[in-house]
Amino acid sequence: MASEAIQTDHRELPVWRRARELVKMVYKMTGNFPEAERFGLTMRMRRSAVAVVSAIAEAYGRRSEGRRERSLDLARGSAFELETQLILSGDLGFAYDVEKEITAVHQVIEELDALTNGEL
User: What's the predicted TM-score (pTM) here?
Assistant: First the structure.
């Protein structure tokens, strides 16, 4: 990871900002899910979205590069979980046209990959 990226305040990172927007999208979307899903897919999707942005912040609170990269890897894993959950929400008929949200998840994953590879 590039030393400049390590110095950056996580709140200034475009990926952190994009992940925050993703949380807002997920909360808005899941607010329309059936009440029966409150402790099912709704909770899982919200937890995954929050885990992405939280792990990015955690990465920048870490002092060692190895732990920082592990936190970014956890954020990436949570983003893939969220992608799957978005697809399932469409499959189950809870949400329609989830492509916008899936595209947003893919952007976060790409930025996390670039950040981990020292490209940002």
Answer: 0.87
Domain span including residue 108: 16-116
Q: Based on the number of CB atoms within 10 Å of its own CB, is 79 exposed (0-12), middle (13-18) or buried (19 or more)? A: buried
Amino acid at 97: D
Residue 2 within a domain: no
Among 112, 110, 102, which Cα is nearest to 71's?
A: 112
Q: Which of 57, 61, 45 is nearest to 104 (CA)?
A: 45
The percent of residues in the chain predicted with pLDDT above 90, rounded, is 65
Kindly report the average pLDDT of the chain as a whole number: 88
Q: Which CATH number do you get for residue 69? A: 1.20.1440.60
Tens digit of pLDDT for each residue in 22-61?
999 999 999 999 999 999 999 999 999 999 999 999 998 8
